[in-house]
Specification:
Length: about 190
Amino acid sequence: MNDNPVSIRRFRPDDAPSLFNAVRESIDELCAFMTWCRPDYSLEDARDFIARSASVWEKGEQYNFAIVDASEESLLGSIGLNRIDRVNKFASIGYWVRWPRTRHGVATAATRLIARFGLKELGFHRLELIVPDHNVASRRVAEKVGAKFEGVSRERVILAHSVHDAFVYSLVAADLTGDSGVKVIGPPS
């Protein structure tokens, strides 16, 4: 899927070194907001994540994508649909962008792409963005993609052993504009 200059595609095993480098380059920022991030994140952690991503995709439990620069295929971050509720047809969107590429519209473009995938291709009725109260950049992303602010969930997330309120945003199919068909780029090799 492409939203020039950003594409999202399924992770491939050969993405591990690029994923590792992107995480290491952004470790301080990621550890502040991502529960999976640790200061000692390793290449083996990147390999494990990619292998797990393929497994949970096949089971329909989670859909993780590499965010890539559409022209040069460099890895810019990751975005996924998680916390999937098949009965009520909704999921949460989670993402991160490597530090030097933040504030360039990468997260906004990738969020639009995954929203189209989730709402159009997977048939979800609702996607949620749960944003820690102090993550102003992610709140801006939610607003830029047209997500509707629904309120503040008190003490919703725990980050670095500290409890935080979270801003709750939602996207439904009616929120998508300028939509074209979405196709996932290839299965992992």
